[in-house]
Amino acid sequence: MFKEKSTPLLFLAPAIVLLVIFKLFPIGVALWESFRFTPISQESIFVGLENYEFLFRDDPVFWNSLLVTLKYNLIINPLNVVVALALALLLNRSRPYVPFFRSLYFLPSAISYTVVAVVWGVMLDPYYGLVNSLLAKLGFSAQPFFSSPSQSLGSLVFVGLWRSVGYWMMFYLAGLQNIPKTVYEAADIDGASKWQQIWKITLPLLSRTTAFVLVSSISFNFLTFAPVFILTKGGPRGATNVLMYESYKSAFVNIDMGRATAISSILLVIIIAISFISLRLNKAEYEY
Amino acid sequence: MLYRRIAECVLVFILCIIALVYLVPFLWTAASALRPAGPMYSYANPLTLETFIPKNPTLQNFFHIFTKQRFGRAMFNSLFVGTSVVALGLLVNSMAGFAFAKFDFPLKNLFFALVLLTFMVPFESIVIPLYVVVQRMGISNTYSALILPAIANGMAIFLFRQFFADIPTELLEAARVDGASWARVFFQFLLPLSKPALVSVMIMLFLFNWNALFWPLVAVHSSDLEVVQVAVTTHVAQEETHWANLFSSAFAASLPPMLLFLFLQRYFVRGISGTGLK
């Protein structure tokens, strides 16, 4: 370590200035604006907690949006963990075909959520979609997918999984490589079956990876916007109206910045709370 | 031994089934982009071999979106914004990483806490308040609105710090003793040793910008500044005849990130395992 005063500050200055203007300051603005009300073409006025009070007391659209966001997250995040872990376990071996499958499963994570949503929107079209013609070939009846209130959220979960599960799989593969082979050799000598080894050795030793994947996946999925904007516009009948989309509509369709920033602030608080939990969970539970 | 053979066959079979779920959308997108414009739905229903292999492949859809739909302009905008962010971001974030990795200075912990905080607040969550900031600064609807907020990145600073910390300090001390300025130490000694970190951060920043939808959608509205992802969405919800544009633009928008991934795969993985777990 070099002990200097001005040199490190000079190296640090550009990054700190930019972070303050474009990251820290907006957080302040979100809170500031959420305490204000802007009547059309007039100066905004301070209204205290009124925006929040209204949201929680008299705003069924907000409540529905909050519930949809929670429901979406309660479904997609555990699925992300389970499927990513399963794929990693299947692909954690050295065979010539393994790199191909790893790359293929990861590939959607490199493409934008926008393109993924656009393509799956056409694939899942209720009348002409490829998935329905495949279902017809297999003898099933056609499904409405995004056009039905009961299936749209599930379809959104599927598209979300398709796009990111390979990404989380990579973390599990990295975690699996870190487990020393000797642990399994010892278990083999003691006569533990492969299945027992997965449950008693692999999963406990991966608990840190799981905590990380779960928390990152939650903070990513709480902010889902692109697929909703492209595929459903929050519908049908509010079934996919997640908070991010609701706050976007509030800001740019209804021009109600107070309500929009209040929703943004609520999301921010949730995200920061999740990150703090993640910091605590990241302390390793098992040493090896 | 026989049992193991069977188990392996079952495994490969499962992997292939999952692979189909991934391959079908890719193949269909490629096939539809290469098909002459027209009612494309007829190829999806009923399912035939022609669904995936176009009979008369043509590049006319691509010519159309690049010449008539201004998609070329959108590609240029995204490329311009992405390169600017990468160039400035590599410089700014590596400098900050250097300060954190190799120096002791007053308020270091406070500054690092600031970086950690921004690390925890994802860009998407501040898009709407950021719009308020950018508007007050008078740079909304300009390239600056797309470039400036994306340069400093907590995750990139973190990644650089980790990487620089592993480079022996004695090496830099030796250079200092020989009379090199701090700028020379940084640019001529440290950075040339840090190619893996530079490539990982480059990929991260470029992909993040190339794939961004929400911020460009909010920050700029003039069609001259439209970026690739926004251009792709303009084809959604249009009439059936425009599916050719939709697929060809989706295909063109995905090509740069996929090529980046296929050629620089090991840096991708290093970036991932470096940011998350250690």
Can you walk me through this structure?
The complex is a heterodimer of chains A (288) and B (278). Chain A has one domain (61-281): MetI-like fold (Orthogonal Bundle). Chain A is built from 13 helices and three strands. Chain A has helices at residues 6-34, 50-58, 60-91, 98-110, 113-123, 130-137, 152-177, 181-189, 194-205, 207-221, 226-232, 243-252, 257-281; strands at 2-3, 36-37, 45-46. In chain A, strand 2 (36-37) and strand 3 form a beta hairpin. The longest helix of chain A has 32 residues, at 60-91. The two termini of chain A are 30 Å apart. The relative contact order of chain A is 0.13. Chain B is 72% helix and 1% strand. Chain B is built from 15 helices and one strand; from the N terminus they run ααααβααααααααααα. In chain B, helix 4 runs parallel beside helix 7 (143-151). Chain B is globular, with a radius of gyration of 24 Å. At the A-B interface, strand 1, helix 1, helix 3, helix 4 and helix 5 of A face helix 1, helix 4, strand 1, helix 5 and helix 6 of B.
Indicate the mean pLDDT of chain A.
86
Q: Per CATH, what is the topology of chain B? A: MetI-like fold
CATH superfamily of chain A: MetI-like
Oligomer: heterodimer
Major sheet details of chain B: none
- The CATH class of chain A turns out to be Mainly Alpha
Q: Assign an overall shape of chain A.
A: globular
Domains of chain B (count): 1
Which protein chains are joined by the largest interface, and how many residues does each one contribute? A-B, 92 and 92 residues
